[in-house]
Amino acid sequence: MATSTFFLSPWAARLLSVMRIVVGLLMIFHGTQKLFGWPPSDHAGGATGLMLVAGILEFGGGLLLLIGLFTRPVAFILSGLMAVAYFMAHAPQHALPIINQGELAVVYSFVYLYIAAAGPGPWSVDAARTRTPEAVA
């Protein structure tokens, strides 16, 4: 099936923005768990060392992705963070993500890599900053 005839094709750029907003918001919650203990979890609050760094990157990076500011470099950094999280926390338990419970880290890593390549979409601060007056009209 040709992509140009698919009924969602006109929405592709906007759905890229929606995906960026959703994964940014979800990443903020990962950061708030580590940094502030909310929402509660087994490893909530009082993060030190690498968990503190991860919490700061997740919270700050998630916030920047949510609004679409510095989207490409932030998404690239978060992609790497999720890859490191997978190989440090999940891979040592077992080789398969379905068994080591690392599917989410793998999916996040590749979604962020895609966003780094595709950009923020039209609903973002980045898009608003680069828009010319002629393009807005």
TrEMBL record:
Xref: Pfam families: DoxX
Localization annotation: Cell membrane
Membrane disposition: Multi-pass membrane protein
Keywords of the record: Cell membrane, Membrane, Transmembrane, Transmembrane helix
Chain ranges passing through the membrane: 12-32, 44-67, 74-92, 104-123
Keyword RNA-binding listed: no
Family according to the record: Belongs to the DoxX family.
PANTHER family hit by this protein: BLL4328 PROTEIN, OXIDOREDUCTASE CATD-RELATED
Name of protein: DoxX family protein
Species annotation: Hymenobacter endophyticus
